[in-house]
Amino acid sequence: MRTLARALLVALAGAALVVALAVGPAAGQEQKKKVVFTVGDTQDLDNPNPLVGINVPAFELWNLQYATLTDKAAKDFATEPGLASSWEGSADKRTWTYHLRPNLKWSDGKPLTSADVAFTINRARRESWLNYTSTVQNLTATAPDPRTVVIHSSVADPKLPTMDSYILPQHIWDKLGKSAITKYAATDGVGSGPFTLEHVEKGQFFRMKANPSYWKGRPRVDEFVFRKFNNADAMVAALRRGELDAVENVPDGAFKQLSKDPKMQTIQGLQGGFDELALNAGAGLKKPHPALLDPRVRQAIAHSVDKKTIVSRVLDGLGVPATTMSPSANPDWRPQIPPGQQYDFDLAKANQILDAAGYKDTDGDGIREMPGGGRPLRLRYAVRSDSPRGGPIAQFVTGNLRKIGIATTQKVYNDDQLTELIGKGDYDLFVWGWTPFVDPDPMLSYFTCSQVSSDPKDPTNYFNDASWCDHTYDRLYQQQKVELNPERRRSIVDQMLTRFYRSAVYNVLYYEGDLQAYRKDRFTGFIRQPAKTGPVLFTNSSQSYANLKPVTATASSGGGSGSGAIIAIAVVVVALLVGGGFWLTRRRTAYERE
Amino acid sequence: MSARFVCGKVLASLATLAFVVVFNFFLFRVVESDPVASLFRGRNLTAQQRDTLTRQFGLDGSKGRQFVRYLEQTARLNLGRSYATNEPVASEIRRKAPPTIALVGISTLLSAVIGIFIGVVAAWRRGSKVDYASTTFTMATYSMPDFWLGMLLLTTFAVALGWFPVSGITDPTSDATGPAKLADQAWHMFLPALTLTLAYLGEYALVMRSSLLDTMREDYLVLARAKGLRDVVVRNRHAVPNALLPVVTLIAINFGFVLSGAIAVETIFSWPGLGLATYDALNGPDLPMLQGLFLVFSVAVIACNLVADLLYAYLDPRVRSA
Fold first, then answer.
1. How far B75 CA sits from the closest chain A CA (Å)?
2. Contact check, Cβ <8 Å, A128/B173
3. Interface predicted TM-score (ipTM) of this complex, two decimals
4. Which long-range contacts (CB under 8 A, 24 or more apart) does B157-161 make?
5. What pLDDT does A7 receive?
């Protein structure tokens, strides 16, 4: 009996210890009622250093941590005052003087002055900082007084006065030398935006806290937590259970189900991203199948692509069938091609064009040959293995091509291999996509003659993956690059994109967006950018966060669902200990029993 | 155990290690890639930035020069920089090793202890209902793929019932430290550890059972019983220690493999260890990270095999003279 009593005492002590450990953290969590906004995503922050990181979550972090001289309106990306409340330009529009707001401070209390702005712009230009170069490469900044910044551009730049480079605190970043600055961990959390970085656990989450020094005022949300999930289904389950308030990159199937849930708001946020069927136009290192050099063949191929079916069957309806390439997140930059001049899906017309151009099937095998009965029209189709859509889209595209007498041989490549293949010119057709910036210049530049792969020793140094070279397009590109009148610039870009469309080297299949979802019962104040069609999170200037307020008083995310588990573990431990004690007792009496 | 024997085993392991180091370099160069082009597609890079990034990733120079640089760096334990995060691979691995070692260590311990116990009971009461029940149970869990088991536990206990968290190692909103933080981590570790334990205990149970069945036929056990020792004492003090030999070496070898094989379980539970790091690196492909991880796993397996060899020789004198 003594042994049994001893065993029971040990069991009780063990259970008490386990329960105490469990109750301890739970009690600690309930002391402060912080307003926490938690977002889940399947992509991770790669590096919090704005000179190194390139992933979408990294840009979200910087949008929240670093205020910019000018902001972008959520409605249509129009330039709005940011850190600078006003500005004026010189007569030639190459020099702009910005006036900073009074009493600007960094989150650590130090004053934010024009010296910080000048430091950022000048050093970014001198050292070619990765995410800054396209904005600052021709700019020089001076700071005549603490609240005035003068920026001078050596060339006419239609982007000015927009100045949306992340302004960094000089007192933190100036201490780092040229090689140290790209190795800097950047977890200091000193910023000027609505939130500043508090803690990063790489591969798991990062946490930001509200910045009381933000020039628009401290946000209503106290903390923003970004959580990385490997398992998209677990992420959606966490949203349903209330562990998350919003989710990015919702899987297609879950998106449809969440759309039916009255507690959830689903968003298909378009930011100009698109996928296209690209053809080799022949200006690269190797020529494609000779048929592709004939614009009539390209037009026939364009008429054979059934975009509506691809969107409904491959994307499950979660996309918009496209016409032209979109050079900007702002849909206003897309030209309107008159309906009579579009390459509609029309197999009869495609066959007609090819017949009229002399590509007949002379040997009756269903595949057309070059005019005069030469090489059969068999094209090489490169399928992207890194995209889950690659295979399904290939089936629809090549199936219809067969119906107009064009055969294809498909080969599968991962992105690295495909990039090199295109650079070497060893391709005819492939499907890939782009996501443009807000200013159309970068996207337009990718299709100039200079961007065609031209060095066999460096085959991946290119952007022009259609190998298309059109000198009129190039001339127009140079014109829009220095055209300061917005209407004239838009008209030039319209001409360029119409020309590009007519060449039929790019068949833009669909515009595709971010699939997002948020709980309607937690926070209100989400802002779409651009208005009506854009996403609410991971947008160009991330305006939602500073605008959010809780729907009810208790909006802190729950972590207390563990009490059930703790009790379960306690029960198991007690059972084990009691069982162990019992077993010990039996050992003692085994001698008598045997 | 003679010094010659030990030296022989150690030298053989070092030779294997040298081969692995060289093979490691060429294995990951078979994959032709230009990470600068694929990572920065659609970004405005100047020629100068391209050159800087190419140098940063160590991709300048001929393959021969890259190989020599690789050997020099590996000797100094510099495993390069990750393509994805630009952090040194060695420090990433150092950071991610403790969660894996904790998870795998605890799971191996539990599965070994429970597996051995089940195996012993099953062998000792051979033919009884206990034997059939336990053998069925262990065969069932052993044949279940660990990722399937993990998904099942995750969906039931974390997603449907909400008793355990769905991912990670800590609660991102809590600032807890000390014992409260340990309790939080233990709560997060429960399901992945349960998965690995269930998946591997079958192996130990079955091996223990068959080893003990062989031992039970030995004459010295008859003598022990004749001397009047209790059944339990005969089992625990004489039979089991001799039957443990194969299981002990199995544990040592398994530890090396499970360290790398927890990839599926870590990915399912988003456990931030080396397995998840491998999965993320494969998605890149983040070649320096894969190279570093492959090296670490190979070293672990080689080291554990060496320990198993030496341990077996220590425990069983018959092996030393062979």
1. 22
2. no
3. 0.74
4. B157/B191, B158/A234, B158/A237, B158/B191, B159/A233, B159/A234, B159/A237, B159/A241, B161/A564
5. 61
